[in-house]
Amino acid sequence: MVDPPLEGKLFQNEKKIQSFHKLFNSKSPIGCDHGRILLWRFLHCVDLLEDSNRTLLTKSLFRLLLFLSFVMYMDNIVEFVTKFRFKTDDSIFRASILHFNCYVISAIVWYALRQKRKNLTSLLKILRKRYTLTLTKPQILVLLFIYSSAIIVLVLFFTSHSLKNEWYIYEIKTNYTIFSIVNCIRILLQIFIYPIFTNLVAFLYCFICQSICDLVTHFTSEIRVCPFEEFTVRRQTDILRKMSGIENALNLTQKVFSVPSFLISVSHFCSCIAILAVEIYLKDDLQLHRQIEWFLIFMNSFCGLLAILWKAGSLPIEAEKLKRTYRIKFRQKLLSENKVGELHSEMDLIDTSNFVLSGCNIIYFYRSSLLALAGTILTYTVLLMSQN
What we know:
Keywords: Membrane, Transmembrane, Transmembrane helix. The chain crosses the membrane at residues 61-81, 93-113, 140-158, 262-282, 294-313, 364-385. This is Gustatory receptor. By secondary structure, the chain is mainly alpha-helical. It contains eleven helices and four strands, in the order H-H-H-H-H-H-E-E-H-H-H-H-E-E-H. Strands 1-2 form a two-stranded antiparallel ribbon. A two-stranded antiparallel ribbon has the order 3-4. The termini are far apart.
């Protein structure tokens, strides 16, 4: 006989083990909920949702975060002034200015997105009704990689400073505890503002694009498997009504993320050029931990830019597949009823947009522009360091 308390503990442990195994199941709602909570917590913490930061504690923490971010900006400005003294002919100075612009752009991204937080909340509610808004296992891994950047940078910093006997902050001698606390706050804020914050916004943008894309793919499959005999006017009207709802969500996505997506693309582009220039031309002058840190930020920047182009660029492709499938099914229906003269009306029935998203109508997100992007980054990197 097993004691009841011991039996209860064994049962709880067994449930924990089962939950742990379910976490790695791609169809598990537990794993998806964990990833969704990470994303939703981020939106609440930075006050990007309509109902976020309503309590006194959350408002105080948010204002403290803003104050510390302002201090970090001033610290970076002072560092640039004292280190470079505006040597405009110095290639490293130009690369540093490019990278510093990323932090300024991140603040503008937050402000632009906060101005649209009511629309963002409405968009998420619309998608929640039509889509489960759950994260897949690869998406959770990407989210964890974004968050883990801060931990990796912290480990690299303290590993490189572990052999020192004296500790200085702004040329003021101090002890190890104060040195650790101040640098932890500084590094965490710096890495959070860029690239973590911008990549989390980019992740949210890609997640919404993927949700809309999955809905379009689902409707395409519905049309494909539907026999043309059952492709009646009622069925066509139902499909077009659903497509109208998706177009509304897409228009709201463009309204919310038009400015942020443009600014994020610019910041990632500038960061890639600056870091690639430093890594290529000054690799021998950089310590190992600095090389790893710069490479980590470069991967965040380049992958963030790549993800936006890939996910937002998948919408026109899926929209074209939907139109083609609809036209084929519509032709089959008309030909079966000997209504060849009405074939021209198919264009009116599926008169949907191309589902092309853009950043401020300046950058249009297509997958075909990926190779051009890589070539442009390399070209501007060489141009930046040409007058070394």
